[in-house]
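Aim 2 progress update. The chain analyzed this quarter is reproduced below.
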Amino acid sequence: MVVGAGIAGLCVALAAAPRPVLLVSRSRGPAGTASAMAQGGIAAAVGEGDEPVFHAADTLVAGACHNHVGAVLDLALAAPDAIDWLLSLGVPFDRDDEGHLSLGREGGHDRARIVHAGGDGTGRELMQVLVAAVESAAHVQWLSGRALQGIGLCAGGRVAGVRISDEAGRSDVISTPDLVMATGGIGALFDTTTNPEGADGAGLALALAAGADGRDLEFIQWHPTAFALPSGRHLPLVTEALRGAGATLVGDDGAALMPGTHPLADLAPRDVVARRIWRHRRAGGRTWLDARRLDDAAWRQFPGVLATCAAAGIDPRQQPIPVTPAVHFHMGGIAVDDAGASTLPGLHAVGEVACSGVHGANRLASNSLLEGVVCGNALGARLRGGSDAGARVRRWVDAGPPAPAAARETLSALLTDALGPLRSGAALSAGIDAIRADAALAGSWQGRLALRLLAPALARACSLGAHFRVDSGAAGNIRHGIETAAYGEIA
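Predicted structure tokens:
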């Protein structure tokens, strides 16, 4: 059984053939998935003069060298073949006038190596192709409108079954010896996020409650440029490929924000840019992305941004775009080994809900779709030869009751304050105390998951990657001893 139908889950389902697969998801098709909303492309060393080792080096530096080096090398080496596989399925990657793949550059990359489809609609284009492939696959049965409610364990502690419910609240129990979590991220727990409503951490919470280990749960990436709508939690993304094309971040006075903060200025890694904007906004300033210098040819790469701006009455060719940091990606998750297996026998994880260590303390731009494809295919292939004979369920585990609506609002504000781009021991301790003192939160699965996020953030007293402690003294370059002119953070 595969739970979650983003790119990672769909790739697992396809690669597991001919073994029967039951695919369970809240929605059917591209809608409602973070994958479909991805404006960035797929990073791969396919350009002239580029090599997987250069891609791996950028991944390690962006991740503050907290990464699992072997996983990074495997991902970078597999990237060109992943692009070829997607091309074979019919993904319409963008090409230049000579017919070569058109490559863009994003923050943290030392060169252009981002492959796009439909400009800033890469996630949507990939999802359409993969959804069609899964729907025509005879070995996959797709149950949409369902949510995972519980995990059944056999006498030996291995996964033996699941309990799922439909939109009317009716439950079904299904036996399975292999459960794949592909349930996405945690952004919906916060005040502002680029994630969809379903990215609420429910899959992660259930896996942890069932006894699976977590890893790197404190590392949460804030994307620096979400569209700053006057209200609303789920904000449209303004792709950083705009900055790769020449757009700049400015304040109300039009002065550029990034010079003097980092040698790469607007193309600094995401955590650096997010912190600069966060400080500026906390000081009372607004932040804008000025893309007015882009010509018509450049704008043809960003139909999604143009549509988002038009819906808000903004023409970004004539006006700067209001932007704000928002929770974008969780580097931590269910701890998995190189094969995608968790510490709970029979439970596997892939995509954002998993943590193999490949992203380290801060994900490099456009490595997430790549991870979904590469790791999804590898996990599906590994599970292809498994036995469908399951043991009997002896014990059921669920994550706990949901928090009431008012308590969820309290929790989202608390997490935003404590686990933002700038963190302090005082705010983290206050968040833990507030949850424990609130019975509605402390007993809920959201509250329990929040404590699992806050505890390692409090314990990690020094800054590392996306985890930046303002109370850890003069940080200087926080990238774990990496002293390079390209990546040393100045402020």
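Residues 196 and 223 are 14 Å apart (CA to CA). Residues 220-327 form a domain with the Flavocytochrome C3; Chain A, domain 1 fold (CATH 3.90.700.10). These observations will guide the mutagenesis experiments scheduled for the next reporting period.
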